[in-house]
Design goal:
The chain contains ten helices and four strands. It has about 375 residues and is mainly alpha-helical.
Length: about 375
């Protein structure tokens, strides 16, 4: 029995460490690098902040109580713990839904100016207000937060013995999970269809290279977000199934440890979407490498996508031993320099500052 508790504690401490480290790292690099502060990353930073809070407030309590084999923090902390995890989990689901809608609008209108960073912040405020409104309902008498499973974690009451808890759980499943997933599936289906229509269109070959690049990047981001949604949904599916089974009354003979597993899987979801985003977004990955020196020195420079001669910056000294001043240096395609024309002095200065360690001013 103690061995099982210790295993749960180890896994939860690991989730806490990875969740805080990875989510915190993404938030840090985006905040200190202005070229990463776009709409896509604003949505992701919001989810990473939520994931960091779940890791630091949610999973750490589960890990600590698993060592003792019982909840040791009292009823008030139990309810606060449940509220925070539930509230932030709903906010993440709403944020993923908003990202899906935003990607559809960008691809359909072929413009990034519709959803600005200011609009994005308003959307994120609405997502968290949505999560807060639903998460507060148990405090107002519609269902309640309590210990579950083997008494090492807290959640909603799901035994299905009364109409109060059953009605709220049905409402929560529909509004908090089924409806957002239905919106995301519908929107992404339309997004994929729209992209196929554009590629099949006779006018696609007449698109400018800048226009094609925007569509290509947005489709790549769309695929990344779709993967994040899929993994997040898989992590929360066991908990949703457990909720439905509990309402039906099929969990009466279930082992407390088995009843606890869905909640633990759901809480571990905070480490999935930041890891996926880092692996798929080269700009964020390169920023992490530069700031934390995670890899070898030879990997510190981005891959070849867009090019600029070194001598445009007036820099004869090479970045590498075998690179001359007249050679071409490169910048990652995910770095956002689209706010100004590609031939402008300001863009060249921003490119040089990004590429050169000593940040000497360009002479164009």
């Amino acid at each position: 029995m103690n061995a099982i508790f210790y295993c749960i504690a180890f896994v939860m401490f690991l989730v806490t460490f990875i969740g805080c480290s990875v989510n915190g790292a993404i938030v840090y690099v985006v905040l200190v690098n202005k070229h990463l502060q776009n709409v896509n990353n604003t949505f992701v930073v919001s989810m990473c902040i939520d994931g960091f809070l779940i890791s630091s407030v949610g999973t750490i309590f589960t890990a600590a109580t698993s060592v003792r084999g019982e909840w040791i923090f009292g009823d008030s902390v139990c309810q606060l713990h449940s509220f925070i995890v539930f509230f932030l989990g709903l906010a993440i689901i709403a944020t993923l839904t908003s990202m899906a809608v935003e990607k559809y609008i960008v691809i359909k209108k072929e413009s990034r100016n519709i959803v600005t960073k200011r609009v994005c912040l308003y959307i994120l405020f609405g997502c968290h207000l949505y999560g807060l409104a639903i998460a507060l309902m148990p405090f107002l008498g519609w269902n309640q937060y309590q210990l579950e499973g083997c008494n090492i974690t807290c959640s909603l009451k799901m035994d299905g013995n009364d109409e109060n808890s059953t009605s709220f759980n049905i409402f929560m499943l529909i509004v908090g999970l089924v409806l957002p997933l239905a919106i995301m599936i519908t929107v992404y289906s339309k997004t994929i269809i729209k992209m196929k229509e554009k590629h099949r269109s006779m006018n696609f070959n007449t698109y400018s290279s800048h226009r094609k690049t925007i569509l290509k990047r947005e489709m790549a981001v769309t695929k990344t977000i779709l993967l994040m949604i899929g993994v997040f949904s898989l992590a929360w599916s066991p908990y949703a199934i457990h909720c439905i089974v509990s309402m039906i009354g099929w969990t009466k003979g279930m082992s407390p440890f088995v009843a606890t597993i869905p909640a633990l899987i759901a809480k571990s979801s905070v480490i999935y979407h930041p890891c996926i985003y880092i692996s798929k977004n080269r700009a964020v990955k390169n920023a992490l490498v530069l700031h934390f020196n995670c890899f070898k020195k030879s990997n510190r420079y981005p891959k070849v996508v867009n090019s600029l001669p070194l001598n445009v910056c007036g820099m004869p000294s090479p970045l590498h031993k075998n690179i001359k001043a007249t050679d071409i240096v490169t910048v990652d395609e995910d770095v956002d320099f689209s706010n100004t024309p590609s031939t402008s002095t300001d863009t060249h200065e921003r490119l040089c500052k990004f590429l050169l360690k000593d940040n000497k001013k360009c002479s164009v």
